[in-house]
Model the fold of this input.
Amino acid sequence: MRWDEIGEVRCSVARALGIVGDRWTLLVIRDLFLGLRRFERLQRSLGVTRHLLAERLEKLVEQSVVERVPYQEKPTRYEYRLTEKGIDLYPVLLALVRWGDRWEADSAGPPVLYRHKGCGAVAMPTLHCAQCGEPVAARDMQPQPQPGAGARRWTDPTG
Amino acid sequence: MRWDEIGEVRCSVARALGIVGDRWTLLVIRDLFLGLRRFERLQRSLGVTRHLLAERLEKLVEQSVVERVPYQEKPTRYEYRLTEKGIDLYPVLLALVRWGDRWEADSAGPPVLYRHKGCGAVAMPTLHCAQCGEPVAARDMQPQPQPGAGARRWTDPTG
DNA sequence: ATAGTCAATTCCCTTTCGGAACTCAATGGG
DNA sequence: CCCATTGAGTTCCGAAAGGGAATTGACTAT
Done:
């Protein structure tokens, strides 16, 4: 199977990665979350080639993750902004931050801390059951393949 | 900047992606979470080339995300299992599932549902503040760069 | 003896990446 | 006017990575 067919698989992880799973793409999105919007700034921040950045942005625009909006005329210049679909990637980014903080931080500790505006706490958000509110880990969840999902046997990999 | 230098950047997203940000890698990890452990099965499930699978697994073993354990002798055969570091990627996978379910599901709905063993609820876990327990979205969190983080100005991209 | 299993590895050709230079429209300074 | 600069790309080319298929090697089952 080629990578460009990955979005056709009936699996939400595969489909999500078909859109944001290319190299650099999630870093572009990280920078957009950090408030960078212009091509030039993104390119300098990431150090990626202009060519690749242009291509990634174009794909994200096609997929409605990002929108390209003019911010001046004569000459018309465009900037890139996250759409609602793009903003909804926040949990993905935050999950990566959490993992990177835990397993790859250097001795100086995490480079960025996160403060919850609601209560003021400085701590990474964690996954909780939407129903009962308890924190959940991998072993607490039981996946249930639906009809037509190409039924795969489930063996608990965490046990 | 080349992709293979991305892990050296002082950013947890970049470091995480340096390890699991290659094409196919998170799909390999998805399959490991689904209980697949053997090379042959992974290859058939993913449809990726054997060459690439071998390479990705080797890198994951190097990074201690996966361990290669013998499951028989004569001839010695190995299988691949998630380590604690690997299992800790669950929130990343789940965040991708949630996003894929929401934005890329077809008319038949999500291919897999998740049941919380604790309370029996069938629902995707969501991000909550670890302190106060309230659900959080992108706009609820304020990132605070720490000293030496290459101070970047923060503009709220969701506003 | 022959076929099959499993985990790779090798070959070869195509696609993608990385680095640098170039384009185009407009603006600012001398 | 002439020249340099800015911003957002585009073009070009050699290098690296990916994909498809066949092969290897150590066994096991029939």
Remarks:
- Residues 23, 48-49, 51-52, 74-76 of chain A lie near DNA strand C (CB under 10 Å from a C1').
- Strands of chain A lie at 66-72, 77-82, 112-116, 126-128, 141-145.
